[in-house]
Design goal:
Blueprint (H helix, E strand, L loop, with lengths): L2 H19 L9 H17 L12 E6 L11 E6 L10 E8 L7 E4 L1 H30 L5 H7 L2 H4 L7 H11 L6 H25 L6 E3 L5 E4 L15 E2 L2 H15 L5
Antiparallel strand pairs: 1-2, 1-7, 2-3, 3-5, 3-6, 4-5
Length: 266
């Protein structure tokens, strides 16, 4: 096929994509975003150097860009549960069961799985960031390296008054173990800014997950094999991929798969 023919075919397809995007058909309202994302996925596949893939354990909960697909095929962004018994860093795809917020025939109730799986992760990460920030501020204040004016200007004074007391000895030991030079005020201020930015990033993820506080339902008839490139994260603090579905949920999903895809009984 010549380059001119390829271009003509792509131009014809593009006109259809534009028409469908503007058609008012509800399913296609996110079609432009999907086309943009898919073009990026394809470009990255061609141009990026080979890399080791992230390894996901069975029952991991991930967030997947399923795209805009044909007919009753699953579309949109959904959480999903990894089915693979084994994964490795050379494997670029995963088999997953999507999760929906809607209850339909053949769906399996998995309770408040997103909320229950993520809440401890959020609490642990937030406490870790806040404790590290407070240790640094306590140590700095004790050495006269930071003033109330600077604290107020940097928007971090409230961290010192959060009610969770940290002794000076604890703070200094933490700074020593972290390799932070308390004589270098510029690098310290930069570190504090990074920590407060981390706290804001964690808050963004936490608030995003609040909309998943209701009951969820696994979709065993919609098993998909997806590229790991479709796995999405809000930022580095997004717990997807690090949170898991409980064992009883995986048992129920296995039972549904056996019932619907095989003639055997568990």
């Amino acid at each position: 096929m010549s380059d001119n023919v390829k271009k003509k075919i792509c131009d014809e397809a593009n006109i259809r994509f534009i028409n469908e995007s503007l058609s008012g058909y509800d399913k296609f309202k996110y079609l432009p975003n999907w086309l943009k994302n898919k073009s990026k996925y394809l470009e990255a596949e061609r141009t990026r150097p080979p890399k080791n893939q992230k390894v996901y354990k069975r029952s991991s909960i991930i967030y997947v860009d399923f795209g805009i697909n044909v007919g009753n095929e699953l579309s949109g962004n959904h959480f999903a549960i990894v089915l693979n018994n084994k994964d490795n860093n050379k494997n670029g795809v995963l088999s997953v069961v999507p999760i929906s917020s809607k209850n339909k025939k053949n769906y399996i109730s998995v309770g408040e799985i997103i909320k229950d799986s993520s809440i401890k992760h959020f609490s642990d990460e937030a406490r870790k960031t806040q404790a590290e920030t407070k240790c640094l501020l306590v140590a700095m204040k004790s050495k006269g390296l930071i003033t109330e004016t600077v604290l107020k200007h940097e928007g971090i004074k409230k961290i010192l008054n959060d009610g969770n007391e940290i002794s000076l000895d604890e703070a200094l030991k933490k700074m020593e173990s972290s390799g932070i030079d308390l004589e270098n005020i510029d690098s310290i201020i930069t570190k504090v800014k990074f920590l407060t930015q981390d706290a804001e990033a964690q808050k963004k993820v936490y608030h995003s997950y609040q909309k998943y506080s209701k009951k969820s339902f696994a979709m065993p008839l919609s098993i998909q094999t997806v590229s790991k490139d479709r796995i999405r994260k809000i930022n580095k603090f997004d717990p997807s991929g690090n949170i898991k579905a409980p064992k009883d949920v995986m048992i129920r999903i296995d039972e549904a798969i056996m019932k619907n895809y095989t003639k055997s009984n568990l």
